[in-house]
Amino acid sequence: xxxxxxxxxxxxxxxxxxxxxxxxxxxxxxxxxxxxxxxxxxxxxxxxxxxxxxxxxxxxxxxxxxxxxxxxxxxxxxxxxxxxxxxxxxxxxxxxxxxxxxxxxxxxxxxxxxxxxxxxxxxxxxxxxxxxxxxxxxxxxxxxxxxxxxxxxxxxxxxxxxxxxxxxxxxxxxxxxxxxxxxxxxxxxxxxxxxxxxxxxxxxxxxxxxxxxxxxxxxxxxxxxxxxxxxxxxxxxxxxxxxxxxxxxxxxxxxxxxxxxxxxxxxxxxxxxxxxxxxxxxxxxxxxxxxxxxxxxxxxxxxxxxxxxxxxxxxxxxxx
Amino acid sequence: xxxxxxxxxxxxxxxxxxxxxxxxxxxxxxxxxxxxxxxxxxxxxxxxxxxxxxxxxxxxxxxxxxxxxxxxxxxxxxxxxxxxxxxxxxxxxxxxxxxxxxxxxxxxxxxxxxxxxxxxxxxxxxxxxxxxxxxxxxxxxxxxxxxxxxxxxxxxxxxxxxxxxxxxxxxxxxxxxxxxxxxxxxxxxxxxxxxxxxxxxxxxxxxxxxxxxxxxxxxxxxxxxxxxxxxxxxxxxxxxxxxxxxxxxxxxxxxxxxxxxxxxxxxxxxxxxxxxxxxxxxxxxxxxxxxxxxxxxxxxxxxxxxxxxxxxxxxxxxxxxxxxxxxxxxxxxxxxxxxxxxxxxxxxxxxxxxxx
Lengths: 320, 356
Hints:
The structure holds 2 protein chains of 2 kinds. Chain A is α/β, with parallel strands linked by helices. Chain A contains 12 helices and 14 strands. Helices cover 37% and strands 19% of the residues of chain A. The longest helix of chain A is centred in the first third of the chain and has 15 residues. Chains A and B meet through α3, α4 and α5 of A and α5 and α6 of B.
């Protein structure tokens, strides 16, 4: 089986699905001739032509808005926003329109589009290129939010997102794009949206992470008897898997790189508190970015949850 | 080197029917007597609907409502040029378009009364829900038009919006995308001179809105928006251009909002009654009536019979709207996604229990 990194796995998913489904159209800045700034759409223009791989003007709101119109008409557009930090002009389109068309028309029209965007810190990129504002989108009813943590799951989740009848935001952790190589089968396999994955079984503590933090958590917690959950879909998230694990271990640590306040960890913590508080042997802990803008490269490692902070939280909980 | 002129543009304005009901015969569109009478009936129906909606609002039977008074020709005339298969992305002040496209009147009443089921466009018609967020629906029209072209469908897409929307970023992005990709889209601005209390002169320093199209590389034209023939003609031409691969067109319908912004507004706070009175003299329906009378198509009996017919139609729609079965509480969950999320299912069960 071929070994692929995440860029190649996503590229493969797009190519295979575009071959299968002529409703899929890609649009975004530099997605065509340039193949995307991370080369995720490399070679697709040559295969599928300008009607299906559309280099657009530099206009995030217009790109998402155009994709919405295409989706309403019956296509399955995939809009690329070059970096998550540039998505904010399109916020109105996502929140006021993409998330609501199905409901406003009581199902007569729907908006099956995917917005792919690189996200997360740790690639020595300029300002606004390393954001992790996933929680904004989790707060929008009508939008699904998916975060792969490696090549294999990226392909399976993207295929599901492309076939989903509703809008999906697909956040691709840039730090992982070329870091991990895995066996990625050619041809069809899908991973369902809304299902988490137990990345490692364990008994003493549940650690929940997603995206690039998963890789870090797996590495630094190797010596611990920790059950590590890769959330994969943040909205709607897999409450069942989270709660089952928490009830087993009685301890939970949530790790994310976004700022702590109103980060997605807050929702997870509230859910655990509501549903499983009597199973807990200690407080629900979050290891998150501080409430500051993501710093540039020289200081970013002080911002991101690192091995020391993650282990300290787990140790604190185990001693509680 | 001397400066050279590298480009020039000129803005056209189309007028066919004057306030006295005289038409420029050379410009008069190719419409049969039946067509013209149909236009007149749609105008009267739109105005009567509007008046009834205002009354219903005062009686507390519907909620906040945006009147179209004075803008009927701009809406009816443009929509009359559309095919049933065309797609329309309206703003919230295009009731005349809805009526002309055959959108059920009872659904319109229901929407404005707060029943969201009123936005469920009937099958066979593609009138998208009104955009309450100003101007943000314009890129959707571009996308739908690109999709129609990709599919090879003979469909044109029309977006309606007001003068206020031309100040928004999405107006720029949509126009720019339309200019670059040239899909079959027609942008129709109802320039009614007021965005709530802000006059057209505060929206842009440009002399006309129509000229904005030139900067995006496509045609723009201003029409007398109170002249149903001019609006119809310009729209038909734009649709022909769209369908034949000639790209987008921008039509500025120069008209006036006679009424308040909505029933929640008091326009006397920011504009003079003299200005309103001047525009009332340019009434779009009266001038078509005069035209019809001059041609011998109109008399008082016809008017009475028409008004009776229109009233009955609206009475029927109000009755139908008000006798519609109330929505189930559970309905708020059912179409957010194709199928409910686990959390929605949980809340749905609690809500459904409360229904019982």
